[in-house]
## 1
Amino acid sequence: MKLLATLRNLIRENASTFVSMLLLVVVPVVVSSTLAVVLYNHQDLLQNLSWAQLLLYFAIISITMALALTPTTFVALVSGFYLSWGSFSGIVISYGIAALIGYSIAQLIDHGKMMSFLNRFEKARDLMQELRSQSWSLIFLTRISPVLPFALMNFVLSLLQVDKKKFFLASIVGMLPRTLFFFWVGSQANDIINLLQDPESGTSGRILMISLILISIGGLYFVFDRALKKTLRKAAAKNEENF
């Protein structure tokens, strides 16, 4: 009963946060499907961009990824299809900027309410502190996975209140393998619709994606397991001091 009451309080006091997280999962799928049709009907839209237009493109995708309007995989595929490899560094930096924008938006929405709620419970507070101390590994492992939604992870990591500089750099490094792969896949494609419907590139592509998912899952399990064990040891030490 106590657990159910705690869960009800958690949901009631953080309703706006949970609704926002749900939207961050649903919205990218809807918007990217619509954009795929637009790009198919206007296939010259992103071709032969000037430097000014390219900078504007980077600015726009930074905002759309931050707002969960376009998935990062979609952006990498489309960019690889339409742009040259000279633009790749701009895509990578755009991911970092989008991460920071998403982080800031999540802070504005949540106002620290989630962490304030968790801080009422000593073990939860200690666990969050341990995870925060391993923030570089945590961020990297959430970013390297091709199945964890980018915008949702921005929100979750913002709730944990990780350091912004680490957040920016670890996001870029973690996103790099899959960004490189999907950009390359886009550069090899002949049709934008077929590309977006089936972005994998044969057996090697599937092996890479599975490998990244396994690295992410295994790494996150290790990080959480280590943080939990440290938290429990700290709680046990406090109990012994009290006795």
Note: The radius of gyration is 20 Å.
## 2
Amino acid sequence: MGDNHHHLVCRRCGLIEDVDCATGVAPCLEPVGRTGFAVEEAGITWWGLCVRCRPEAPQ
């Protein structure tokens, strides 16, 4: 926690992998419009199929 990373999540097996932030700073810390929230953290999650679950993966 606190190391500024995001996540990849496999929709089939549920594998979760950490991915370093490419920009060096957390994204979207200022939401558009007035929300009333004091934003403390933002993150990105990519969803798809891991290398083991992709149909073209070697068996």
Note: The chain has one domain: 1-59.
## 3
Amino acid sequence: MSLVQPVILGDMPSLSKLYVNAAAQAARRRVLGTHTSSRLPDSGHEVRGVTADVGNLTAYQHLIGLTARDTLPAGYLHALTFPLAISVMNRDDFPLPMLGMIHLSNHVEQRSPILFTQPLDIVAWSENLRGHRAGTQLDIVAEIRASGSPDIRWAGRSTYLAKGVFLPGIDKPTPPNGVNDFAPGDPTAIWHLGVDTGRAYAAVSGDFNPIHLSVLSAKALGMRRSIAHGMYLASRALADVGPAKGDAFSWDVTFEAPVFLPARVALDIRTAQGPGGAWQRSDYVAWNPHSGRKHFSGTVAML
């Protein structure tokens, strides 16, 4: 739970306006000098009474391969919180540049099902500013409650990296000595992702980050081609785990290498069962079937 009193916003922020503001903010910082604060904002942001759009929910379920249900998928709930998370990173007192942030990992706890008709209170804040061998990282935490209820129904922690940004007073950790021993096996699925995959996910998530939309917009931000949204990939893997996970589970994903579009992605899911053959957890890993390079991996486990 947040340790600071959040600022209550009247409506969910517009992601398109936030991206425009972030670009203007980046330009100001280039002119006026690099932001040198090593302190995160003292408060988060909260929006109350948020409801899901049924048409948007249906399109999301179809895109990632889910059958239509009246409960909100865990990945859809992440997308619902995302504008609020970006608004926290878009504050003038946020010490890192929002544009160019790299999504390193995600931890989600889906604690109970949420019906699409339920009004929701959503809060997001930043914490745990720390060094990374390639820059500075931090966590954006988001929580969802049914409006008027104190119980957390969904909680997510996203770790982001500002590559090449080193803030004063924050130590740079020693690089790990571990060896990458990943060896591709036999995939349980092969995904064929078209060049429009980024635009399709943007349409259902509202995240129109230019690195995902087209070759031209991605090249403008230093990418050789557009890349797939990380949470689209993770959400599709979660969908492939299937309904055995039930209504309460934890969901982890670590991103390692971007998926440049168009692409083929190999996925392997391995399931562990508990007493009586009941589902206990599923571990998944995805890689480039041509090069063998790992894209992402994670775990879904019972709570």
Note: The two ends are 18 Å apart (CA to CA).
## 4
Amino acid sequence: MQLLERVERDIREQELLRQGSVLIVAVSGGADSTALLHMLHKLSEEWSWRLVVAHVNHMFRGDESLAEARQVEALARSLGLPCETAHIDIPGYLQSRAMNPQDASRERRYAFLLETAGRYGASAIVLAHHADDQAETVLLHLLRGSGGSGLSGMAFKRIEKNVELVRPLLRIYKTELLKYCSDNGLLFSEDSSNAERKYARNRIRLDALPYLRQFNPRISEALVRLAETNRAEDDYLQGVAAGWLQQHGRSIGPGYAFSREAFIKEHVALQRRVIKLILSYVFSGGGSVDFSAIERIRRAAAQQRKSNIHIEVPGAARMVRVYDEIRLERTTNKSKADYSYALSKNEALQAGILELPEAEGVLFYEVRSHEGVICRPKPASFLDEAQFALEQLEFPLVVRSRLAGDRMEVLGLNGSKKVKDIYIDDKVAPDVRSRLPLVCDASGRVLWIPGIRRSRHALPDGETGDQPRLILGFGARM
């Protein structure tokens, strides 16, 4: 099978590109991207693609870089294609930033490619990474101790900022691309920096792989197969973890909570994958967590002892274990804020909603009498309610955060009990305790802790239907 046919087969089988798409083709001027552009141009009539060439001059190599840019522009003209070229002073950019040159180049290059895709309304950016690049990537990740996801190497397709990054050459080797250029009379540039051993990837290509070929002459092919095998298994585990989280977890803002009991029943591989998946949500793709952090979280979640556990995760996240619940969530620098809001009798009679931002909720209030409800209906987020005999309440009511020494005369119990002990007995998580509102009367008596306990004060008379009642409800912010 000819090289062009193999590339088109992979495009179809992997569903990499769609008919009639606008494609940004990243062309450096080397043999790989030159061959890619030429092949896509040959296929574009059948696929109805509109191709746009994009080139970045990183200005590292002076006249050599400028000559490459001119060669790419000439190639685009010869094919009748538009060409977008960016000249970015990466050496100058690095002077004010603590980044290595390759990371800085990649960051600015991808920013330009994504911006170009936006201007042209392109659905995909096509990149020329090939099988030898894949082998280098896998070996580099292996040496750094990456797990299954890292050993999957580069994906044929992934999405970044709503644009697909597509690599149709991941099964094609460099020698094949060089031969394609030769057979089709295509001129290309040789990047002199590819011979510099100060870059880790160059040392992998120039030193590590040639040495390993003493043990396996087809080491590159073996590493590419390893990537494909791991990619399939990684995709499968990702789907299983997502399904488990949907069944056993619940969203808590930037993170998830789940049952420890359900978690420890699963295989250790799935446990690790669930943790990694949640942290990917927490970091929104902006960071990664190493194996040691994932394992610390997994072991802490699996411990038999029942004490609460907090683990800080590098990158502004934390794991909290509270009794049988495990939480993985983003941390903030906000400290606990004390708060206090007053509710007068006149306000209560009018009915309405009191915003409680510190409690991440709202307090709903209305008065009912023998004539029925005399206010608007409850909001959809209404979660919990309590009723009080209106005339037995001392106004204004105060809705506030917990204070040290707070006590409550709990309905059904004799005497009073510390609010702190109520929280402990009801297994209320420490971070939730700091947010929960306490509804108190004018004398400071705690009347109600939403969702937890109600006091024995101001109980409505169940035998007297015409007694006005204050209905309080607490729910999520709308």
Note: Confidence is low (pLDDT under 50) at residues 371-383.
